[in-house]
From TrEMBL:
SMART domains: HTH_GNTR (SM00345), UTRA (SM00866)
Database matches in Pfam families: GntR, UTRA
Record domain HTH gntR-type: where: 2-70
Keywords (A to Z) from UniProt: DNA-binding, Repressor, Transcription, Transcription regulation
Species name: Salicibibacter halophilus
GO terms, molecular function: DNA binding; DNA-binding transcription factor activity
Name the UniProt record assigns to this protein: Trehalose operon repressor
UniProt-listed CDD domains: WHTH_GntR
């Protein structure tokens, strides 16, 4: 069961993302929030702590909870998150453009037929992500432009009934390539944040390699870490 502080966190984070609380302003006091949400001060503190950990606010002694600039989109790079799932938070602000979809002989773990899927992700009318995917055609025998424009993971999980389990990822900063300049809206000073992922099914079969190239000015790459004392 979701705890109340998590529900309050969700409501406050959505209001910050929607611009109801502007960057640089302060949230209502703990007492005001406790009254608004009919919650204890301790519950409000937990929700504020979660907002701070996820980059929404900065708690400043004597000033309260200051809202941080959310013009950069939080991207949880440690999870196996799809663009469609990110899009659900952003509403109609997003669009996917399929620029390549072909099947050919290749290598993904073992040699065989693979799909090459290249997609440009638009947010607020700007081209800000270039996703270059290779899928095993043995695991995913059928793909279309329509599926690729919506969600390949949704198709894999709900139509093919496969379980996507885990991924190995690396994140690096690179100078833009010629391809980046062709497909992304870049300024002279932009660099590219590249996330390379190998993703596996429940039986540990490698079925996908992704190179996801992001405009660095549009994203905040976040993770939630908890220390385990040894």
């Amino acid at each position: 069961m979701k705890r109340k502080f998590q529900d309050i966190y969700k409501q406050l984070s959505e209001r910050i993302e929607a611009g109801s609380y502007q960057a640089g302003t302060t949230l209502p006091s703990e007492h005001q929030l406790a009254v608004t949400y009919n919650a204890s001060r301790e519950t409000i503190r937990k929700a504020l702590k979660m907002l701070s950990e996820h980059g929404y606010i900065q708690k400043v002694q004597g000033k309260g909870s200051i809202v941080l600039d959310m013009s950069r989109i939080n991207f949880p790079f440690s999870g196996v998150t799809t663009f469609r799932e990110l899009s659900q938070k952003l509403g109609s602000r997003t669009k996917t453009e399929v620029i390549q979809l072909k099947q050919e002989l290749g290598q993904l773990g073992e040699e065989g037929m693979v799909w090459h899927v290249h997609r440009v992700r638009h947010i607020d009318g700007e081209r800000i992500i270039l996703d270059k995917d290779i899928f095993s055609a043995q695991a995913v025998p059928h793909l279309t432009k329509e599926i690729s424009e919506q969600s390949i993971y949704d198709y894999i999980e709900n139509e093919l009934e496969l379980t996507i389990s885990f991924a190995h990822k690396e994140i690096v900063i690179e100078e833009p390539s010629k391809e980046d300049h062709n497909y992304l809206d870049l300024a002279e000073n932009h660099v590219i944040v590249v996330i390379r992922s190998y993703t596996y099914l429940e039986d540990a079969t490698l079925f996908q390699y992704t190179e996801s190239r992001h405009r660095s000015d549009k994203f905040r790459f976040v993770d939630f870490a908890r220390r385990v004392k040894k």
